[in-house]
Amino acid sequence: MKRLNVLKLSAVILTTLALGFVGGYIVGGLPLRGLVPFMERTSEWSIGIYTGDYPLNLTPVPGINPVLTGRDVTDVDAKYVADPFLVRTEAGWYMFFEVMERNTQQGSIGLASSQDGLHWSYERIVLDEPFHLSYPQVFEWEGQYYMLPETNQAHSVRLYRAVDFPHSWQLASLLFPGAYVDPTIIRHNELWWIFVKPRGHPESHVNLYFADTLAGPWQLHPQSLIERHTDDIGRKGGRITKAGGNIYKFVQDRYPIYGSRLWAFAIEELTTTSYVERLALTVPVIEASGSGWNADGMHHVDPQLTGDGGWIVAVDGKQRHWRFGLR
Fold this sequence. Notes:
It is built from 1 helix and 24 strands.
């Protein structure tokens, strides 16, 4: 079967090249000269649901994954969806996630809803800006819902507040300047903490900020850069989660390619002067499966405790495809 697939791929490549070099493609009887045939590898991210009895012990829900793909998005031409974050209310479950628009190659924030947390319906884009948006961590505080998305192209970390949850959001505050990716927030010991990775730096370079209130002022932790993993590990990959008396931080591993797997670290000490963590598991929490919608990578989790003591977890997965055409 593998040999047959290689032969099919080779035939497509040879056909594409032959058509490109012998007079150009013919459309409507006219040769399209000057166009060059191409083939490229492209990645498609989709969203899935896992469950488990603990945030570090997860398995895919049989028969439903992926629960959302770019093809489910109806109001823009979406290349893929990724970075899902969950919120549970009395009305049901909501999922916020990145929608990568094909034409602009820019992300916006989409919304899906569910009654059981397993089966999802796409609703619409709920936040769009002139710059790229992704990684929309949504949380509730003092009766208000907030969203902390990645806004590194705006060279600032921005906090949004729901005007009409879950559909309408407005800018609440510019927390601090900087081109940071995947800002991840947690409240601990009466303080707010945000982990960020400076854009363009190695994956292991992570800064930590803290503040008394959401609006700030935010201070840079004296141990920043706080982590010293390999250069492939460190960028955040989902909500920091408290379970079993532990605080778990999920970090991406880009070896051998971006988004290959996710590791869990336990935060053992988090104060305004010190930071200590340890590897929580010697195996990844999630990783590329080798086939299907998550064949080539997984890089995000958002664990949510259910009423029966179990966990529903939003994840994403990557599958790579070959694209052929003219340009």
